Design the sequence.
């Protein structure tokens, strides 16, 4: 070994007229296998991007009719959606309001529940129970959203009424929680949000669980060795470490909640509303972009074009949500473990 | 002040002249461990991982205020034994134990004794420095108080004293609010020592504390151990024979034959263990002939 090393020793470098060292260019010729594999993987990666552009382009072309007739600004800021008048008055603002409110209600309930669920799995369970719990949560993710919607519509809706009533009676002074006299309390944004919360719970749980399980063992041991309780250790080590994952998972859940369709199509009356005129999240009313589209699909060509425009807005918003999430997460310590 | 000056003057490793050492009294922690060092005694200690017995019948007294070194080749159960001493062993799934560990005469595994109480009195420094990276240096030092829900009215004093005792004060006094994770490896380890000392434990366990450190940091940690003598009982696992010889008052030599659980072959005063041990295997090991 040492002999070859002597043989291979580089010849003395000839004196160069240049002053100071210059970096040497190192080229690597990949093997045929690597080149082929590289082509396949790059192709797959690019196809995703192409698909995204195709969807965006399709929505843009299809919606051009409605947007050009209405005007971008008016389309974005108008609340009502009327195609029975001439010229048609359509706008996405009422739908957006409902969409965002449902998603926020969903995330409000789903995030704490998911975080505690993930902690129960990673920190408080024996190996056997951990497996079992992970299976149950994954099973929840496998339930078709239609079933959640039906269940929410036929079962949960009535059961939630007393809660809505209580909130309205006791917290009615907060504008959102106010309800009108004799208003129906079913089919509300609140109930739709709760159902959507159950639907996004598995994804948030699974992302946060993944991150929590990567908490450095040394730091956890350090906290316990100082006389900390398990909860103290979680607060001092696991939660700070998993912060990026919690945020990322929540944003991912928010993205899903924004696009959730079937359940909200079933639960909400899908009449566009806006904060300030008649939005009361506890009483019947509200519409979301996706639910509205699902309910109106198959209408005349102008309406469809308008729905496409609404879809384009939703597309951009969810894309932006996920991009913001990935920026937030990539800046955090545990971010490497989160897929967005 | 250059490095040379530092060595010439009679200083603590914290770099503060002994005469100038601040005369702050020891900050009192309410609800913390009782003051002073405590004697640890293992009686017939055994440990299992699953079905595998890794440590058998260890009887060892670690006298109050003294430094006891646990030496022996890798895989002979030293670290396992150390983790038995503050109930960290039971955190590993499938781990089991037998025997008694007496802290000033009381079994730490007795029914009704909480692991948290035990760990508060018996601190631990790990092989790999593990400060809490999200916390500042100050918060790191005080983390034990928060975790064990202890109260202290003189937090600034406590931070200063703990960092002085760990030999880190001079290097970090001006940046107590910067992140603990930004320190060098050796500083991080001394921060971990300060963090353990801040709870004012009766015993400090050290699991190869210097194996990831450079020689200068190693020297500082050894100086710290030397200064802790009398105040805290120190039990240190080390693979470095010179270190064991330098810092410890007594030694225990662990050895495990192939596929056999680890046992203590010999224990006694460090000088005797290194100069004229009873067991020829001890002499072979301390003189570097195997392991």
Sequence:
């Amino acid at each position: 070994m040492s002999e070859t090393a002597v043989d291979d020793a580089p010849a003395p470098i000839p004196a160069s007229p240049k002053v100071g060292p210059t970096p040497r260019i190192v080229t690597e010729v990949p093997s045929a296998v690597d080149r082929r594999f590289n082509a396949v993987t790059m192709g797959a990666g690019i196809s995703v991007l192409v698909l995204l552009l195709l969807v965006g382009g399709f929505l843009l072309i299809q919606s051009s009719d409605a947007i050009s007739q209405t005007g971008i600004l008016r389309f974005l800021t108008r609340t009502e959606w009327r195609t029975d008048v001439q010229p048609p008055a359509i706008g996405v603002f009422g739908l957006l309001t409902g969409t965002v409110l449902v998603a926020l209600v969903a995330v409000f309930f789903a995030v704490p529940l998911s975080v505690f669920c993930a902690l129960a799995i990673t920190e408080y369970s024996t190996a056997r129970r951990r497996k079992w719990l992970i299976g149950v949560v994954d099973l929840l993710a496998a339930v078709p959203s239609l079933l959640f919607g039906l269940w929410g519509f036929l079962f949960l809706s009535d059961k939630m009424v007393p809660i809505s009533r209580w909130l309205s009676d006791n917290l009615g002074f907060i504008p959102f929680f106010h309800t009108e006299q004799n208003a129906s309390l079913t089919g509300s944004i609140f109930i739709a949000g709760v159902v959507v919360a159950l639907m996004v719970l598995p994804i948030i749980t699974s992302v946060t669980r993944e991150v929590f399980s990567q908490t450095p063992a040394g730091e956890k041991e350090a906290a316990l060795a100082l006389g900390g309780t398990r909860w103290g250790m979680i607060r001092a080590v696991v939660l700070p470490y998993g912060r990026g994952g919690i945020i990322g998972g929540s944003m991912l859940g928010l993205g899903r909640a924004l696009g959730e369709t079937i359940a909200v199509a079933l639960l909400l009356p899908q009449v566009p509303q806006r904060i300030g005129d008649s939005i009361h999240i506890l009483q019947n009313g509200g519409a979301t972009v996706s639910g509205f589209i699902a309910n109106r699909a198959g209408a005349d060509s102008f309406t469809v074009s308008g729905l496409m425009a609404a879809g384009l807005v939703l597309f951009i918003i969810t894309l932006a949500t996920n991009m913001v999430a990935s920026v937030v997460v990539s800046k955090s310590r545990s971010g490497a473990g989160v897929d967005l | 002040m250059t490095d040379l000056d530092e060595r010439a003057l009679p200083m603590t490793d914290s770099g503060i002249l002994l005469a100038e050492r601040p005369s702050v009294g020891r900050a009192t922690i309410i609800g913390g461990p009782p003051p002073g060092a405590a004697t640890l005694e293992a009686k017939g200690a055994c440990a299992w991982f699953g079905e595998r017995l890794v440590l058998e019948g260890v009887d060892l007294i670690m006298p109050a205020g003294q430094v006891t070194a646990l030496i022996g080749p890798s895989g002979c159960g030293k670290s396992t034994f150390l983790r038995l001493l503050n109930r960290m062993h039971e955190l590993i799934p499938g781990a089991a134990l037998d025997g008694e560990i007496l802290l000033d005469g009381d079994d730490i595994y007795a029914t009704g004794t909480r692991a948290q109480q035990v760990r508060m009195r018996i601190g631990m420094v790990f092989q790999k420095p593990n400060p809490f990276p999200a916390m500042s240096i100050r918060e790191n030092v005080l983390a034990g108080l928060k975790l064990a829900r202890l109260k202290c009215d003189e937090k600034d004093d406590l931070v200063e004293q703990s960092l002085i005792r760990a030999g880190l004060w001079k290097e970090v006094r001006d940046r107590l609010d910067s992140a603990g994770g930004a320190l060098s490896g050796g500083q991080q380890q001394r921060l971990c020592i300060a963090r353990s000392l801040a709870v004012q434990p009766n015993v400090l366990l050290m699991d190869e504390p210097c194996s990831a450190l450079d020689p200068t940091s190693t020297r500082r940690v050894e100086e710290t151990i030397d200064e802790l003598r009398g105040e805290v009982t120190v039990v240190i696992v080390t693979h470095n024979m010179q270190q064991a010889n330098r810092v410890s008052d007594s030694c225990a030599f662990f050895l495990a034959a192939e596929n056999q659980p680890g046992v203590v072959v010999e224990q006694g005063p460090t000088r005797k263990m290194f100069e004229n041990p009873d067991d020829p295997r001890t002499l072979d090991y301390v003189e570097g002939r195997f392991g």
Remarks:
- Chain B has one domain: 38-286.
- The domain at 38-286 of chain B is CATH 3.40.50.300 (Rossmann fold).
- Residues 185-198 of chain B form the longest helix (14 residues).
